[in-house]
Amino acid sequence: MQEDPITGTIGAEISGIDLKGPISDDLAATLRDALSRRLVLVFRGQHLDIAAQKRLTGVFGTPVQLPYIVPTDDDPQVVRVLKEADDHSGTFGGDWHSDMSFVAEPPAGSVLNALELPPYGGDTLFANQVLAWDHLSPGLRELLDGRDAIHVGKPYGVKWAPPAETQSKGAIKMTRLDPEADRERFHPAVLTDPATGRRSLYLNPIYVTRLDGMTEAESRPLIDALRTHATRPEFCMRLRWTPGTVVVWDNFATLHYAVNDYAGHRRELLRTTFAGRPIADWRAAA
Ligand SMILES: [Fe+2]
Q1: How many independent structural domains does the chain possess?
Q2: Which of 31, 94, 224, 265 has the fewest CB atoms lying closer than 10 Å?
């Protein structure tokens, strides 16, 4: 197995292994170590079926079924991320976010497997949130350390429901207008890995409405400033998808962004997600 960094700060291309075959305990440990250091792992030309994708997912944590998005008919833990050629709405994941951060137990990571790609475009950006925390100003670190951010499933709820004309035309089947998605969920604004002490900023502009102890109006400029800081080009990589590419990323230490620049072309990927430690364990010890 070979590991080639994609940038100086995030991502690695992993080559020399075929994920269609069995994954030994040694290889699994090596992959987990690579993910913990590089945060995004890219495997080219794998063309995995669902069983192999779930086997890879299981290397990093227990595959989980998430609410609000209707899974594939084939498997309740697999979501089809699909945009048809004639769909001119926004793209699923079209702003910086961490997958499903608004649920009680957000997934620790995600796996995305490319089935059909546009001839160009449809890249995915990732940003290293460990570096984002490390390079935050002392004043903002003091403000965020020990404070919760409030996450809400805005696209799925009532209060922040997006206009009907901006919604995808059924390619991704979602639960909409669910009052339960409007429920405020409190997660630490900075996560502390209980095993290593590593800290990462855990905020995103899609789902975070405010910081604990502050109003939405007071929080908005801070969330905007944090979005700008957390996605500085020096913290980012840009993934160019190729047929059969499979990507694994750490949802607690990265943000990602799906670029919507392939109008007129079909794009289809399969997503699985995995659980890690309960998010309560990521609160810094007082
Ligand atoms: Fe996403």
Answers
A1: 1
A2: 224
Find the 256 Cα to ligand 1 centroid distance in Å: 6
Q: Tens digit of pLDDT for each residue in 175-224?
A: 788 888 889 999 999 999 998 999 999 999 999 999 999 999 999 999 99
- Let me know: does 156 contact 176? Beta carbons within 8 Å: yes
User: Which CB contacts under 8 angstroms, 24+ apart, belong to 20-27?
Assistant: 20/46, 20/47, 20/48, 20/49, 20/52, 23/55, 23/56, 23/59, 27/1
Residue 98 alpha carbon to ligand 1 centre in Å: 6
3-state secondary structure of 220: helix
CATH number at residue 261: 3.60.130.10
CB atoms within 10 A of CB 206: 20
List the shell of residues around ion ligand 1, using CB closer than 5 Å: 93, 99
Tell me the average pLDDT of the chain.
Answer: 93
How many residues are there in the chain? Answer: 286
- CA 97 / ligand 1 centre spacing (Å): 6
Q: What is the CA radius of gyration of the chain?
A: 18
Range of the domain at 253: 2-282
The model's pLDDT over 89-148, given as tens digits with 9 standing for 90+, comes to: 776 677 999 999 999 999 999 999 999 999 999 999 999 999 999 999 999 999 999 999
Q: In angstroms, what is the span from residue 286 Cα to ligand 1's centroid? A: 31
Give residue 7's pLDDT. 98
